[in-house]
Amino acid sequence: xxxxxxxxxxxxxxxxxxxxxxxxxxxxxxxxxxxxxxxxxxxxxxxxxxxxxxxxxxxxxxxxxxxxxxxxxxxxxxxxxxxxxxxxxxxxxxxxxxxxxxxxxxxxxxxxxxxxxxxxxxxxxxxxxxxxxxxxxxxxxxxxxxxxxxxxxxxxxxxxxxxxxxxxxxxxxxxxxxxxxxxxxxxxxxxxxxxxxxxxxxxxxxxxxxxxxxxxxxxxxxxxxxxxxxxxxxxxxxxxxxxxxxxxxxxxxxxxxxxxxxxxxxxxxxxxxxxxxxxxxxxxxxxxxxxxxxxxxxxxxxxxxxxxxxxxxxxxxxxxxxxxx
Amino acid sequence: xxxxxxxxxxxxxxxxxxxxxxxxxxxxxxxxxxxxxxxxxxxxxxxxxxxxxxxxxxxxxxxxxxxxxxxxxxxxxxxxxxxxxxxxxxxxxxxxxxxxxxxxxxxxxxxxxxxxxxxxxxxxxxxxxxxxxxxxxxxxxxxxxxxxxxxxxxxxxxxxxxxxxxxxxxxxxxxxxxxxxxxxxxxxxxxxxxxxxxxxxxxxxxxxxxxxxxxxxxxxxxxxxxxxxxxxxxxxxxxxxxxxxxxxxxxxxxxxxxxxxxxxxxxxxxxxxxxxxxxxxxxxxxxxxxxxxxxxxxxxxxxxxxxxxxxxxxxxxxxxxxxxxxxxxxxxxxxxxxxxxxxxxxxxxxxxxxxxxxxxxxxxxxxxxxxxxxxxxxxxxxxxxxxxxxxxxxxxxxxxxxxxxxxxxxxxxxxxxxxxxxxxxxxxxxxxxxxxxxxxxxxxxxxxxxxxxxxxxxxxxxxxxxxxxxxxxxxxxxxxxxxxxxxxxxxxxxxxxxxxxxxxxxxxxxxxxxxxxxxxxxxxxxxxxxxxxxxxxxxxxxxxxxxxxxxxxxxxxxxxxxxxxxxxxxxxxxxxxxxxxxxxxxxxxxxxxxxxxxxxxxxxxxxxxxxxxxxxxxxxxxxxxxxxxxxxxxxxxxxxxxxxxxxxxxxxxxxxxxxxxxxxxxxxxxxxxxxxxxxxxxxxxxxxxxxxxxxxxxxxxxxxxxxxxxxxxxxxxxxxxxxxxxxxxxxxxxxxxxxxxxxxxxxxxxxxxxxxxxxxxxxxxxxxxxx
Lengths: 325, 771
Prior knowledge:
The complex is a heterodimer of chains A (about 325) and B (about 775). With about 325 residues, chain A is of the alpha+beta class. Chain A has a single domain, classed as CO dehydrogenase flavoprotein, C-terminal domain (Enolase-like, domain 1, 2-Layer Sandwich), CATH 3.30.390.50. In chain A, the strands form 3 sheets. A 5-stranded antiparallel β-sheet of chain A has the order 4-5-8-6-7. Chain A is built from 11 helices and 12 strands. In chain A, about 30% of the residues lie in helices and about 20% in strands. In chain A, a hairpin with a 6-residue loop joins β11 and β12. Chain B is an alpha+beta fold. Chain B folds into 3 domains: about 20-25 and about 450-595, Aldehyde oxidase/xanthine dehydrogenase, molybdopterin binding domain (Aldehyde Oxidoreductase, domain 4); about 35-130 and about 190-240 and about 245-280, 2-Layer Sandwich (Aldehyde Oxidoreductase, domain 4); about 285-450 and about 605-770, Aldehyde Oxidoreductase, domain 4. Chain B contains 19 helices and 29 strands. In chain B, strands 3-5-1-12-9-10-11 form a 7-stranded mixed β-sheet, with helices on both faces. Chain B has a 6-stranded mixed β-sheet with strand order 7-15-14-13-8-29, with helices on both faces. Chain B has a 4-stranded mixed β-sheet with strand order 16-24-25-28, sandwiched between helices. The interface of A and B includes residues 3, 226, 233 and 311 of A.
């Protein structure tokens, strides 16, 4: 681990102050747990003069039942998501995803907001200052070449958060607050297909809370990720699936979302044909193939992209089979 | 009155004597020493893999306020290295840089920010040369030599044939061959490298504390590169967070720290990052092996013919020894009558490997045991039976390369794992995607020939007995977490019949403790254990004589019962403290010493150059059965259970032995399924604990440990090696289990899920095309 550079730490207790500080200090960065970001700071990837710690903002700490669903404050830790009984019962894959992040100590510090806003990752980016300098940096940071796809002019760093896909399958919405007020948007709209700037947040904006709809509460779901080790590792590929069945075991609703195989969490399209039918071998194969086709892993990890594509399809198929059994 | 008995310490589960400091956080490691005024050291590392150095411009860096010294390769023209025949590495690069990350300059400054600013001001001018990142590229025609005196980048070529190999192969009913590739692996010990050097300009004296397994070699190398009198140097080894071989040679971090401290005329602490620890490397080299084994129909081996090529990195380090072990240690496990070995140690533009746990033999043993398994499958012989078929005709046995084998518990190890794993009931009946595999291994108990021939004994231990009745053990043997201090205390306590609480131990301070070669090649228990027994026996003799004087008895009639000495049952006897008082009369504080030396019979063969490597006083043996399941969808391997039997001669401390064997399984599991370094044009891309995937506790399977005690006639209380052998056996046992589970054999390590999935799909497609 490299040494920690000097910075000024702000710890506001309300959102307005946080936004104010952030707006006043152009170089400032929000920190919401820091389990990933501090590593990047030590590596010189981020060189903030000021850090605005959001975890003391009191109205972002709760999991609250409201009329139209469940609200999860952005400061809620991954551990609390993992252990929350309402989430476990009504939105099970979200608890499962929180429990799969890194290791227990990370879950103790890491937050919902931090995980949703996790920086994209790449072998050529998540390295020390000396390393990146020796490799002429990269497109995402100070350089002009993408070492993953040197002929292209875009960044393929992979979004690797575990929570986002599990929340996307429940059609989560988020509250974004910023200098010009608050807005509620679908979680999907937080992201875009660009490894260099995968978040749509404007200057000074932050994610305040997540809304999970009542209408989908209780739908069965699963999350699983492929990784080399059962702890610590970021996903090589992750898949969340929500599957509600009705009469005669027919599919009433299904949603699948992926992580770590694109620069943004990906919702699988083209599943409408499965509605009202049963999931037999052909339908499960269809799910597997749809997932494989829509995942675009690149050489951003040491594990071969073709494997990540195959395994994400296999996991989706397996989870679908489990949920339809 | 209860019967007075001597205290027993051997063969009893003892917690480690230095455990309380470690678990309470009181233990001080090298980076914990921060005297007032201590400067921070920081290394400037080469951004390129192979280049001629034109200029290292440090002028601006030196002028930065707060910078106390900046040094480059000009600081010393003395190369360092453990092996006298392979000393051509400088602490800071001089004429050329040969791998990315090689130290080029070092700054000492008042704080880390200033040090980094100074690093950023250093201007490194160089002319790039072609760089070679694989053995094949480095050995090709027309390459630029990394070192002028090593044409074609061959560091060492080994070529021997013992027995008649061609005849053996033609006499065989089957000759089966296979190629294997084992990725480069690192130790990833818990403590990154660190050193602190305190230069005393008044006395021209330097004190160095470092994370090391070899303080004595550090002492020699410090004297050499600093060009200082050895008497003007003090080397202290504080607590060390593991080694596993990466600290078996003097590391550039330690030497650079001393050089920059002298240049700064002060105290400098140099701690390097995990990435820099990976770059300093000294792990296990990437190895390509091609092997063929000839067998009779009944499984008897007639000949072995193989080649091993090791990607040796930019400098030799222990490389010559590694490539020799890869040949010499094929012997001694099974009865081999004809062996041909060709070994190539190649110089490449990557960080230099070293002497990692299971030095030199791990990858070759993996290949051998995998191939033997393949043969057993082909001949439809049980995998344990084919190994029994080829056992040594021990226990007293001399191999083709004249190994000195006096204890051989391998048959008992095989019996144990066969029974405990219910091998006979379960093998072949595990169902789809589940399998059992077996493999064996062995390792030396210390290299019998020392690296530096000085004529001194292999080990010397001092015991100091004072008026207070306490005994201080003084040993140079570096406690690095393996439990050597506990072992030494047990040996001394057992001989004297005293409780271990009477002993304190001081280790590895060159001004206090007798010289010791270091903690490597599993030498400490065998050699230092024996020296401790010798010292304690000498002390006991003095105490018995003192008691005899006091009791007015013949020393032969005095019985030592630990806390009580008596001359016959009628005698009133003396307490230990009374004996101590008597012993100190007229002489004062007593210091005795004990020595150990190896027997010339164990010095290896002269049949080929380098045959002394792999000569040892004793060899430990292991057999393991591993049970795995393979996920058909993700190709992930899960190690379900492990049965690990090791013949350790005698388990001096069964608790420690179990720990060593379990640790061996974990480390072996890393090399087998998840660990391996990768480079991008010579730049290590896996140099963090996230991307270099050491198994976590979640991956840890239930491990059943079987301790087999063959009681080696020359070992301390019969003990042998306990810390390396089981690692060697685990890797092939695992891959053999994978082959059993999926019907296709992985050959390349690590068996990551992407590689295994490719193999499984190929196998399915082949099966489909057949039907």
